[in-house]
Amino acid sequence: MVDVMSFTDEQCQFDAIIEAEEKIEPRDWMPEKYRLNLVRQMSQHAHSEVVGQLPEGNWIGRAPTLRRKAILLAKVQDEAGHGLYLYSAAETLGVSREEMMNDLLIGKAKYASIFNYPTLTWADVGAIGWLVDGAAIVNQISLCRTSYGPYARAMVKICKEESFHMRQGYEIMQVLAEGAAAQKAMAQDALNRWWWPTLMMFGPHDSESANSQQSMKWKIKRQSNDELRQKFVDQTVKQADHLGLAIPDQDLKWNEERGHYDFGPIDWEEFARVVKGGGLCNDARLEARRKANNEGQWVKDALMAYAEKHSRSDVDQVA
Amino acid sequence: MTKNHYRYVLRLGDNALILGQRMTEWCGHSPLLEEDIAMANCALDHVGRARLLLSYAAELEGEGRSEDDLAFVRSDREFENFLLCELPIGDYAFTMARQYLLDTYHYHLFTELVSSSDETLSAIAKKAIKETTYHMDRSRDWVLRLGDGTEESHERMQVALEGMWNYTEELFERDPVDVQMIAEAVGPDPEWLHSKWQADINATIKEATLSVPEKKWSLSGGRNGIHTEAMGHLLSEMQYLQRTYPGLNW
Questions:
Q1: Is B176 near chain A, with CB under 8 Å?
Q2: N or C: which terminus of chain B has fewer CB atoms within 10 Å of its end residue's CB?
Q3: The model's pTM
Q4: Of all helices (H) and strands (E), which one includes residue B137?
Q5: Closest chain A residue to B53 measured between Cα atoms?
């Protein structure tokens, strides 16, 4: 059967779905740029989950109690699960996991730049859960309403687990903040180092963000970088107060008129430097992923060879 | 309660803890994303099992120690795990071959411990056998796939088995601790376990087109606190925080 729908009809139907706040599904027609934009965002998100195993994984072996070790293991396992879930969702857009993974390994695809910072102390595990996962939730709650169905549904599931992750991080910080002087100092130091990189996670200011405008129009992105960042700051200041820890920003103060906290300028030069490869862990993170991929090749080859041999012998048996 | 009863449970806990600690090293570094998830999941079962067993061992000891005291402030001379558990992870063939040998061992052990005269141990075994059945299915699958995969994977799996074979007899040694536990119907006879284990292992190795290695030596000592050099490094990492900041809550 010849597809009688014209390009314009397809575009109109797509626009109508977006306008009506309904979801675009894998088999629906979509503009090529919409598809590519989603592949970029979803694969970047998946890569972030996978690379995100590394900074926290750095402390599984050194977790201070068996309870903490079990919780951290479960959390890092969740992150890998999110990665798998997101790669699968992205595959509905006609791109394979291998292609996406390859783009990561050759440095073409990005992942959340926050993971290029080192986890130096146990408190960093707390700070990542509290701040980094906290920021991810603000972003992802907004993405539960994104226009692409598989992505929106993935976000609903992922948000539930992320909120557990954030609570475990906050609990680590709480125990440290109420603990011995060395522990409190460890918690404050972690907050000092992770605060600004966390604010950078929301991306450049709206006026500077290259991909944002079109994404908002397509309702892939539902709130702007600056709106989400403000939401995160507003909720986190109170949490820091509750912990008795000081946010490292002298300009931070409540603005009665705006109904929000004002905060100091973000160092966008640092952001650009780390995104481009100049963070302490950029090389180590990519190297770890490349090593896992390269050294795992013989394992993947073996699985394929076994599957082929045995599907052949099954056929032989039937014959 | 006797000292032997404490040591019996402690050894089970140490095996779970030290093997679990080794397994976590794959987190984020596995050959496949699915394996990152599966390995973390199995490691979590081992850490969970270690917590139950070490808590119970501490209770049997009756000196007010906790699971964390036993895990984090004992020296390597006080750990009583099998040497096989502490060996470095090696490649994926080594890791999965070790998992399979120990999963099969644990499968038969926990099956017996379900009917232990020690009710707590029996309850722990009832939980552990469910996980272990699944662990063994998985690690057996890996031995088959790598053994009967490519020439390279076959070679690696064979080398892995050869490399750990000298450590397997330790799993079935019988010392006064075991003798007393057998007499009190707390645990099974290691010799009986050995025959069950050997039959399963031989069948799998054959199905995987591999050969059963020849045992040259019997390397043991772990159950009496004589470990490989790898153990001290494992503990240095695992115990780092508790040793650096003694006596704090985390």
A1: no
A2: N
A3: 0.95
A4: helix B119-147
A5: A66
A148, A154, A159, A162: CA torsion to nearest 10: -130
| Residue keyed to tokens 């979590």 | B44
Interstrand relation of A260-262 and A253-255 (parallel, antiparallel or unpaired):
antiparallel
* Gap between the Cα atoms of A169 and A132, Å rounded: 9
Question: B40 — phi, psi (to 5°)?
Answer: -60, -40
Range A168-177 burial, b when 16+ CB lie within 10 A, else e: bbbebbbbbb
Which helix (H) or strand (E) segment holds residue A262: the answer is strand A260-262
Whether residues A54 and B28 touch (CB distance < 8 A) is answered with yes
pLDDT digit string (tens) for A162-195?
999 999 999 999 999 999 999 999 999 999 999 9
ipTM of the modeled complex:
0.97
Interhelix angle B190-207/B119-147, nearest 10 degrees = 20
**Alpha-carbon gap, residue A160 to B116, rounded angstroms:** 40
Chain A interface includes B238 (CB < 8 A): yes
- In angstroms, what separates the C-alpha of A212 from chain B's closest C-alpha? 30
Give CA–CA dist B44/B95, Å, rounded: 16
Rounded to a whole number of angstroms, the distance between the first and last alpha carbons of chain B is 31
